[in-house]
Amino acid sequence: MHSSPANILLSGASGMLGAVLRQSLDDCGFPVLQLVRRTPQGPNQLLWNPAESPLDPEPLEGLSAAIHLSGANVAAHRWTPEWKQQIRSSRVDSTRALSETLASLKNPPQTLLVASATGIYGDRGDQILDESSAPGHGFLAQVCQDWEAAVQPAVDAGIRVVHLRFGVVLGHDAGALAKLVPLFRLGLGGRLGSGRQWMSWISLTDAVSAMLFALDSPSLTGPLNLTAPQPITNAEFTRALAHAVHRPAFLPAPAFALRIAMGQMADEALLASARALPAKLTCTQFPFAHPTIEQALAAALATPA
Q: pLDDT tens digits for 72-115?
């Protein structure tokens, strides 16, 4: 990044993406002010529980940018009505509250990056999708649409907003791989349903690099697919992961069994097909470190130095 150091607000700093991003910003010399839900542990943390209290605007004056990554884990457990409401409110309500606060500042930040997801496209079969594609249907697709719409106060205030539409992020011992790798190493892995559904993914390294790139690219606005240039089917992912851990993967999970175990989440989070391409990143010649699934899995499974 070529900008001069300035304060950056970050929510979700304790998550897989946020922790690595915070370290990268620190390494670049950008002081980070973290939004936390528990008692702050120092001057670089600011308490904020969106469901309980408004955000104190005074410490936010003069920020260069804000990055909002927090949200309840979609795959934490079965989608009960209460959990679906938590998924929604942790994204939509918190984003609206943050956008309104930033818009009210005397010196608002120039840029706001907000997490979103390729779930906005819904279940689209083999259709090739990019940032210009229309949203899909379903609970997750609607949540993502409302999530992105919640930034309107910031847009109206002249803040540059980028919606980070993440695919499945593949990182070392975290996220989806934290659950899958132990099963595959035991030889218990297999495709989900038919395995023909498309999976849009990105390595953790490339996800963080793309966020830094978006932060430093004034021409980037609106939706931005954070996905690798080579989406794969679930069956292809299964074969690649089995090969990476040197184990067979002969135990498919039938669609009906997934639906019995997980309900609506199975159809929208595990069996849905989203073949999303990073058109905007490709047009700007963003340098992917891990453009293939083999490279991404090798990096994710490597023992950290």
A: 888 878 899 999 999 999 999 999 999 999 999 999 999 999 99
Residue range(s) defining the domain that contains residue 140: 8-301
- Concatenated DSSP letters of 86-141: HHHIIIIIHHHHHHHHHHH-SS--SEEEEEEEGGGG---TT-EE-TTSPP--SHHH
Tally DSSP H helices, then E strands, for the chain.
Answer: 12, 14
In a domain, residue 2? The reply is no
As a whole number, the mean pLDDT across the chain is 93
H-state helical runs in the chain: 16-27, 81-88, 94-104, 139-149, 152-156, 175-185, 204-215, 234-244, 255-262, 264-265, 279-283, 293-301
Question: Which DSSP letter does residue 251 get?
Answer: -
Residue corresponding to tokens 């609970």: 139
Domain assignment present for 1: no
**Other CB atoms closer than 10 Å to residue 251's CB: what's the count?**
14
Residue 300's Cα: distance from chain center in Å? 17
**How many domains, in total, are found in the chain?**
1
Q: CB neighbours of 141 closer than 8 A, spacing ≥ 6? A: 119, 120, 121, 122, 135
